[in-house]
Design goal:
about 550 residues; alpha/beta; Elongation Factor Tu (Ef-tu), domain 3; 4 domains; 6-stranded parallel sheet; 19 strands; about 20% strand; binds flavin mononucleotide
Length: about 550
């Protein structure tokens, strides 16, 4: 059982246990009453006995009250503006033992924190009418039995899912909870995902499978919630356990580019370790504020910069703790002592990056673009990695397996489509294909200008000349008047695409969730047809890591 599931079952167990205890007491009381020979109220009990009895009954009544209060039916918070097409996000859950409900509530809360209007509903309470009015929906669903929908959602399954539906207006995402021990892993999540697609709904991003409350998969979901809400600093539900990696190299690959600086970083594992990862995996990094901004805050607040505090069962300087937390203002902390400040701090949420190297390269390499805020200052994550993190200094990093983006069988042809820093994930896949001797590879890549934004261009051209890339199509949108993007190249190569897919090719897409991913999806559908694309999705031959 996972965390959330234990809460709901606790209520149920306590409730029934309670009922059993009550009936036992009643039976006992009844049986004993038969032994009472005379009148019931003859003996006047001593005050203390009375008081004791009264307190016991009161405590018991409070205990019952607590249980009933905790399992009371809750009215979902719903601040949906009235009228069809109203701009709100529906968060619907299907839960057997409460975990999916808990995650749906937390997802709704995260979206509200980013300013979105949310309607939270049990899936059993979602009807065709509601689906017809909602523009974006998140489904948090578990599986029970042998691949079955949770009981409370059967009304939806037998009602709405049994009818034809037109869902072209709907963008959606599915968080599928399950347990790999079961034959039909996340069976209901996939069933629902399939139904939504077949009726025209378009995924915001690919279904996220959660094996037994796996924290890293939940953080991946959260990462997407941040994107839906347009915020990057949603607090992590469970902070990742980082290791102290070392920043070895940092190079700006495209100085002067209109698209903003893109940096390649090489990060070495902690001394004496040889961590393993696969192409397609993710590096989760804990960002830090710059030492200067922390020092400035402490100075403005008139606080010493060498105070030692307790945090996460360890001692560290207040300055170090501030560097990895959401920064308070000077006014908020001026009158507080160091430990009190420490106790109020919330950790910065992780950032995730596609790994562009293999373990044989000795370092985790990533590509990232420096993101600028409206005031022109760099974002916390990219500011740290592109500007502030010292070479030779520590990077808090955790590897996360991403099986959904691992390479296919070497015998299968592979088409890789990406833009911008998305080349990072594709580079690792290509390296793995080359290491496996797989030559039937086709790369389609897009960026702004060929002379500075073809990241890893020399290396990729070398692979092409060595025969590891049978085909390469490049799109540099600013190198001519008409903006040409990677999806246009794909569309133009329709015949080749049909031939490769006919030969069993798998398609991997990495890069922008907005613009590129939907553009590539549309090009695939117009060239191969919806049914073929749906089949490839179901067969795991069309995979995306988009952000
Ligand atoms: C009786 C039972 C049957 C289950 N059957 C499946 C299954 O067929 N496939 C699967 O992936 N997970 C299965 N699970 C795992 C649950 O989907 C998983 O624990 C989930 O987190 C429960 O979420 P919930 O509390 O919202 O129902 C089963 C769990 C239980 C208790």
């Amino acid at each position: 059982m996972s965390g959330g599931a234990s809460q709901a079952s606790w209520n149920t167990r306590a409730f029934w246990g309670n009922a059993a205890l009550l009936s036992l007491l009643a039976v006992l009381g009844f049986a004993l009453s038969a032994l009472q020979a005379g009148d019931w109220w003859t003996a006047a009990p001593r005050n203390a006995r009375w008081a004791g009895a009264a307190i016991t009954v009161l405590a018991y009544a409070l205990f019952c009250g607590a249980i009933l209060w905790r399992s009371r039916p809750r009215r979902e918070r719903d601040e949906t503006p009235a009228g069809p097409g109203a701009c709100f996000v529906l968060v619907a859950y299907a839960s057997q033992t409460g975990f999916a409900r808990q995650l749906a509530e937390r997802s709704a809360e995260s979206l509200r924190q980013s300013g979105l209007t949310v309607k939270l509903r049990a899936l059993g309470q979602v009807d065709g009418e509601l689906l017809a009015t909602v523009g974006r929906a998140l489904f948090v669903v578990s599986t029970t039995g042998e691949g079955d929908p949770p009981d409370p959602s059967l009304g939806f399954v037998r009602g709405v899912m049994a009818q034809p539906a037109t869902l072209g207006h709907l963008r959606y995402a599915v968080l599928a909870l399950g347990d790999r021990e079961y034959e039909h892993f996340c069976g209901f999540g996939h069933l629902l995902d399939d139904w939504l697609r077949r009726h025209g709904a378009r995924p915001l991003f690919d279904l996220v499978e959660v094996d037994n409350a796996d924290e890293s998969a939940l953080r991946h979901w959260q990462h997407h919630l941040g994107q839906i809400g347009g915020v990057t600093d949603l607090p992590d539900w469970t902070p990742p356990r980082y290791e102290p990696w070392i920043l070895r190299e940092r190079h700006e690959l495209n100085p002067g580019s209109v698209g903003g600086g893109v940096f390649r970083l090489a990060i070495a594992p902690p001394a004496g370790t040889a961590p393993a990862w696969e192409a397609g995996d993710i590096a989760e990094i804990g960002p830090r504020h710059s030492a200067q901004s922390v020092a400035m805050l402490l100075q403005t607040a008139g606080l010493p910069d060498d105070a030692i505090v307790e945090a996460d069962d360890a001692q560290e300087s207040l300055a170090t703790l501030l560097a990895r937390s959401h920064l308070p203002t000077a006014d908020e902390i001026r009158s507080l002592d160091a430990q009190t400040i420490a106790d109020t701090l919330k950790p910065l949420p992780h950032r995730e990056y596609s790994i562009s190297s293999l373990p044989a390269d000795g370092t985790v390499q990533i590509l990232l673009r420096r993101m600028l805020r409206p005031d022109g200052t760099p974002g916390i994550g990219s500011g740290w990695l592109c500007d502030h993190a010292p070479i030779g200094g520590e990077i808090a990093l955790r590897l996360r397996s991403n099986p959904n983006f691992h390479v296919p069988d070497p015998a299968r042809p592979m088409i890789m489509v990406g833009n911008g820093t998305g080349i990072a994930g594709l580079r690792a896949l290509l390296k793995a294909r080359i290491a496996a001797g797989a030559r039937r590879n086709w790369l389609l890549f897009g960026e702004r200008n060929a002379d500075r934004d073809f990241f890893h261009g020399d290396e990729i051209r070398a692979w092409q000349s060595q025969g590891f890339l049978q085909r390469m199509d490049l799109a540099f949108s600013r190198d001519q008047d008409r903006r040409i993007y990677v999806q246009h190249r794909l569309q133009a190569a329709g015949e080749a695409l049909r031939e490769w897919v006919g030969a069993g090719a798998a398609i991997y897409v990495c890069g922008s969730l907005a613009g590129m991913a939907p553009g590539v999806d549309a090009a695939l559908r117009s060239t191969l047809g919806d049914d073929r694309v749906e089949q490839m999705l179901a067969d795991g031959l069309y995979r995306r890591d988009v952000y």
